[in-house]
Amino acid sequence: MKKLKFTKMHGLGNNYIYVNMFEETIAEADLADLAVAVSNPYTGIGSDGMILICPSEKAPVKMRIFNNDGSEAKNCGNGLRCVAKYAYENGIVEEEEFQIETLGGLVTAKVSLNDQNNVSLVTVNMGNPILQPEQIPVKGFSGKDHVINERVTFSDHTMYMTAVSMGNPHAIFFVDNINEAPLHSLGPVIEKDAMFPDWVNAEFVESISENEMHFRVWERGSGITQACGTGACAAAVAAILNGKSEKNTDITVHLAGGDLIINWQNDGDVLMTGPAEVICTGEYLLK
Ligand SMILES: N[C@@H](CCC[C@H](N)C(=O)O)C(=O)O
């Protein structure tokens, strides 16, 4: 039986099965089904999805991310930090600062090392957020150049939405109390609403101060997860667009799995800093 070597890693509990495509081969036609199979907690390994660490012609390494329903996304913040850790610790790169190709473009990662020379924290320059409705994409706002605090209704619930793409689409809703956010009831409804032609990641955010917020996510293609790096970036951008936070300032985002530091710089780039951890390595028996 053919075996696939894997590493299970997480960023603040957002966990994926990582496959080193410098060494492994998987047919393109099998990728979506494999992501579903390995992610299954009962019959697979159990994860939020699968991430491929691939050779690239544009950078030392390329990331491809599949959600646990088999859909492929263009970006994944927690995945990028884990790919950076894997690439550095496994000798794919030797420099502490290097580029990673994603389907959404090139990003730059910088690793911080601990006393054992292992990667403890990673800062990723996630680039500029995309705010134009057609590019996010979100329908119903033609003629507008952004979607900030717009009144919308899902399942008879009226809410105020700010939409941001970090290479993947996010709908952000500010709430008074994060513990009462309708994550389970409205998350799946918002995700697949006709307003979002590519579906959307739905995020509820309680702003605590200019520098701090609580955050919960219903991820497109994966459901509730412990953390979403691109979502945390989008939430910080949304807080600034809504006058709750400021640019060029570190914002601590408290996710279910821990904290990320996000900074939307004056030059337009969004920096994300947080941990990346290896859980285990193993071999998956291919059916
Ligand atoms: N967990 C990720 C985002 C993964 C992709 C997302 N579900 C999508 O389909 O856009 C992150 O940390 O950013």
UniProtKB/TrEMBL annotation:
HAMAP family found in the cross-reference section: DAP_epimerase
GO molecular function: diaminopimelate epimerase activity
Subunit relationships: Homodimer.
Gene responsible for this protein: dapF
Family as reported in the entry's similarity comment: Belongs to the diaminopimelate epimerase family.
Coiled coil segments of this chain: none
Chain sites annotated for binding substrate: 14, 67, 77-78, 168, 201, 219-220, 229-230
Keywords from the UniProt entry: Amino-acid biosynthesis, Cytoplasm, Isomerase, Lysine biosynthesis
Gene3D superfamilies attached to this UniProt entry: Diaminopimelate Epimerase, Chain A, domain 1
Active site per database record: 76 (proton donor), 76, 228 (proton acceptor)
Principal location listed in the UniProt entry: cytoplasm
Residues carrying the site annotation Could be important to modulate the pK values of the two catalytic cysteine residues: 170, 219
The name this protein goes by in its record: Diaminopimelate epimerase
UniProt xrefs under PROSITE patterns: DAP_EPIMERASE
Subcellular localization, as worded in the UniProt entry: Cytoplasm
Species the sequence originates in: Fictibacillus arsenicus
A cellular-component GO term for this protein: cytosol
EC numbers for this chain: 5.1.1.7
Domain of life according to the entry: Bacteria
SUPFAM superfamilies registered for this protein in UniProt: Diaminopimelate epimerase-like
Pathway(s) served: Amino-acid biosynthesis; L-lysine biosynthesis via DAP pathway; DL-2,6-diaminopimelate from LL-2,6-diaminopimelate: step 1/1
Biological processes, Gene Ontology terms: lysine biosynthetic process via diaminopimelate
